[in-house]
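Hello again, I could really use a second opinion on something today. I've been staring at a protein lately and its backbone has me curious. You're getting the sequence in one-letter code plus the fold written as tokens. I'd be grateful if you could look everything over and explain what you see. No rush at all, and the record is pasted right below:
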Amino acid sequence: MLLRPVRDTEEDAETVRKLAEAAFGASHALKGDAPTAPPTEARAARSREKIRHIVRHDPAGSWLAEDHTGQAVGAAQSHIREGTWGLALLVVLPGAQGKGVGSALLQRTLEYGRGCLRGIICCSRHPAAARVYRQAGFELHPTIRMRGTVDRAALGTVDGAAVEGGPRDRDLLDSIDRRLRGGAHGPHHTYLMRHNRLVVADDLAGSGYCYIGADGKVALLGATSRRLAKRVLTAALLAVDEGVTVEVQDITADQQWAVDVGLDAGLELRAEGFVCYRGLRPPTPYIPSGAFL
């Protein structure tokens, strides 16, 4: 097996994307989930863009594993922001699992973040992944996923001002990040703004933000208080088009404010996976991004 850096090219980005598609598809089947539809070209292009974004900003944090024939069998991506390390992706082809590929990739990304005091990983329900991350010294915090169409009448109105955000809010967003997770997201906000609607609240009671995509998925949320967190999450859910299925992932037990919003909105809850932390107490009020954490 050979490990090599992922290059900032469409070819390498497509290789990583296909590895992730195959690995996640097999994982869903193992857990008894319904198979997902093949990605549209627009969705595939966005996945490649995200992969290249991470490679561009953290070239030493992205790795491909190739077998003796040169075929790619696994990939990992990680990034560092102001002393906070995050694992954005770790995937291994089903036929190559159990052969040390994932452990080797994880070790290489951990070496990239060896000078960081804090680490975050969003982990699926796959038992092998949880075991590997725990052995690497991370605390595992079980999570909830909320999903469904929003009952607007039951959810009610937003408790206070919440407006559409943009590039002018970068300093505010980074300040909230530092308070919650010890490091700003920095350039990740540029990517998230490009592909999601941003809701921002900022007044004497505190500050908060929430990204939500046109597909109804909450991408990232942070706030200085539960009240502000509930406000921006409520505003984000109400901003989704009528009939769109919304989804909020990686909600830990510390985020009961988010559970309350989801229940009010009529969303279904289920146990999903883990958020893993090292050198950092679970930030709250906070909902991480699976890739940007």
The mean pLDDT is 94.
